[in-house]
Design a protein that fits this description.
The protein is mainly β and 177 residues long. Helix content is 11%, strand content 40%. A seven-stranded antiparallel beta sheet has the order 3-2-6-9-10-5-4. A three-stranded antiparallel beta sheet has the order 1-11-12, with no helix packed on it. The chain starts with 9 loop residues before the first strand and ends in an 11-residue tail after the last strand. Bound molecules: flavin mononucleotide.
């Protein structure tokens, strides 16, 4: 069967995990928010990922949203496993301060979520991690009270499948009220 990836493009996030002295990051595109009150965020992670075991063991994870200009680093983070490489050290990723949960916060991210695992739902070759958001980090200068990405200041990384990426064109912005 073909055509599965017709639901792309999706935003890419960096999922952060930490357990037993290991801290790790992996890109994930199968992710979204599913509840606002309470804030709930889900990400689908293959059982094969090192990240999967770390989150299962710790019960917490972070989701970090980074600008398109960091695409190369994101691709490199997705090209190897934390099982074999200390990716934080190898790629020189600076971590910031977490607030509520012991999860890695990517300093250059324009936003990060701290999540505690509410439920893990088996869903084929991936498991769905349902995360209750305990804290939202937003980069300084981006808070306009609008709750949405300020696309004049940051460009989200969008994934189209087949190792192809794009970002937004602010010329196409329309606000319908
Ligand atoms: C753009 C992109 C999106 C990805 N999305 C997912 C995803 O949603 N779920 C998943 O399990 N793996 C996804 N991957 C694959 C993992 O990021 C990759 O296998 C990574 O090396 C796993 O790292 P780990 O073993 O350190 O956890 C994605 C990779 C890339 C490059």
């Amino acid at each position: 069967m073909t055509g599965f990836y017709q639901f792309y493009p999706n935003v890419v996030t960096l999922i952060g995990s930490r357990h037993g002295g290991r801290t790790n990051l992996m890109p994930a595109v199968w992710q979204t928010g599913i509840s606002k009150n309470p804030m709930v965020y889900i990400v689908s992670i293959s059982q094969k990922r090192f990240t999967h075991g770390l989150i299962k063991a710790s019960g917490v994870f972070s989701a970090n949203f980074v600008d398109f200009r960091y695409l190369r680093t994101v691709v490199r983070l997705g090209g190897c496993s934390g099982r074999d490489v200390d990716k934080i050290r190898e790629f020189g990723i600076e971590l910031g301060q977490h607030i509520q949960l012991d999860v890695p916060i990517v300093k250059l991210a324009y936003a990060s979520f701290e999540c505690s695992v509410q439920e893990i739902i088996p869903s084929g070759d991936h498991d769905l991690f349902v995360g209750r958001i305990a804290h939202v980090h937003e980069a300084e200068g981006l808070k306009g009270g609008s709750e949405t990405i300020d696309c004049s200041a940051v460009k989200p990384i969008l994934y189209l499948g087949k190792d192809t990426y794009l970002t937004v064109d602010t010329g196409s912005l329309i606000t319908t009220e």
